[in-house]
C-alpha cells in the first residue's frame, strides 16, 4: 500500500509552516515568517503573529501543494500543531486544519510541537542532508535537546507516537530568548542569535567567566535537567554596566563569545548528563538555536568524547516548520492511531 500523504500545519510562533510528506519522504516545506514585522519591537508580538498567520495560511498551503506537485484532494490526512505555543497563533492553524479536514473528509491529527521537532529527524528526501550524521533510521531511544526562542527542553524519546518524556526545561528564559536579550544590550539587532554568533567569532570565549545556571552540585540534585538563563543575562548586563560606568570600552566580541560559551556549556552539560544517566548514547538537537556555530562545534566534540552519537537535522528542519508536523502525523497514521476529535482546541501549554 502507498504510504499516506500528510499535510502538516505549524503556527505556534511567528512561522506559518505548511509541509507535505509521503511517509518519511519530504515533498514540500513552505514557510512564511512574520519576523520582519516583529523585529522593530524586539520580540514576537502575539497579535501580529496571529494576524500574519491568517494572511499567510492560504498562500502557504497553495505553495506547499505546488512544490509537492499534489492536489488537496490527494491528501490522506491533516496534522496540526495543537500546542504548546502562542494561543492566538495556534488557533489560526488549528482552525485552518479543521476546515481542511472537514471539507476534504480526512482525519485530523493534533500533535505536540516539541515532539514534532523530533519527528523532523525522520524525514529523508533528495533535498535533505543532515547537518551532522548520516540520513538513516533514527535509533530509539534517544535524548533530544530542543532549543529555540520559545523553548529549551530536554526529552527522552522511546517511541515517537507513544513514549516521549519531558526530562526538564527552562525555568525562566529560553536559550534563544537569552541570545536575543543579550544581543539587545550589546546594541545588536533582533533576533540577536545570529548576530551574537557572528560577533563572537572574533572574541575570546574564556575572557569572562559568566555563570552556568543550575549547574552547581545542589542545583544538579534538584534541577538536573532544567535550565535557567535569566541569571546569566543579568550577569552580562551588570558586567557591561560596570564597564560603561567606569568609562571603559565594552569588549563586545569577548562578551558575546563568553556569553555564548556559557549557554553552550550548560546546554551540553545537561544533555550529555541525561545521556549518561539513562545510558542512552544518542543525542538529537533541534530548534532555531541549533544554527549556532559554537553549539554545533562543542556538541560534536563532547558527544564524540562521551561516545554519544549526535544527530542534527538540516537547519530548515530545525527551525519551526510544517514538515516536522506532517512527519509526526504520518507516524501516527502508520501506527494506526485514532485521529483527534474535531472539538479539540489549541492548548498553549500542551504537555508532551
Ligand atoms: O526555532 P526558531 O526559528 O523560532 C522559535 O523561537 O520558535 O528560533 C529562533 C531563535 C531566536 O531566539 C534566535 O535568536 C535564535 O533562535 N537563533 C540563534 C542563532 N540563530 C537563531 N541563537 C544562537 N545562535 C544562532 N546562530
Ligand atoms: Zn519550535
**DSSP helix fraction:** 40-55%
- Can you identify the CATH superfamily of the largest domain? ATPase, nucleotide binding domain
Roughly how many Å apart are the termini? 31 Å
Q: Which CATH architecture of the largest domain?
A: 2-Layer Sandwich
Radius of gyration in whole Å, from Cα? 20 Å
Which small-molecule ligands are present, each listed once?
5'-O-[(R)-(carboxyoxy)(hydroxy)phosphoryl]adenosine, zinc ion
Could you tell me the mean pLDDT?
95
Number of helices: 12
User: What count of domains describes the coordinates?
Assistant: 2
Tell me how many strands there are.
10
Order of helices and strands: EEEHHEHEHEEEHHHHHEHEHH
Structural class: alpha/beta
- Poorly predicted ranges (pLDDT <50, ≥5 residues)? none
Q: Mind summarizing the main beta sheet?
A: 5 strands, mixed
CATH topology of the largest domain: Nucleotidyltransferase, domain 5
Shape: globular
Oligomer: single chain
- Sheet-strand content, in percent, reads 15-25%
Q: Enumerate the strands of the largest sheet in spatial order, edge to edge or round the barrel.
A: 3-2-1-4-5
CATH class of the largest domain: Alpha Beta
Characterise this structure.
This protein is an alpha/beta fold and 352 residues long. The protein folds into 2 domains: 5-130 and 317-334, ATPase, nucleotide binding domain (Nucleotidyltransferase, domain 5, 2-Layer Sandwich), CATH 3.30.420.40; 142-312, ATPase, nucleotide binding domain (Nucleotidyltransferase, domain 5). Helices cover 43% and strands 18% of the residues. The protein contains 12 helices and 10 strands. Strands 3-2-1-4-5 form a 5-stranded mixed sheet, sandwiched between helices. The chain has a 5-stranded mixed sheet with strand order 8-7-6-9-10, with helices on both faces. Helix 2 (46-68) packs parallel to helix 3 (87-104) and helix 6 (193-200) packs across helix 9 (252-278). The mean pLDDT is 95. Zinc ion binds next to helix 4. Fe cation binds at residues 113, 117, 320. Its main location: cytoplasm. Its EC number is 2.3.1.234.
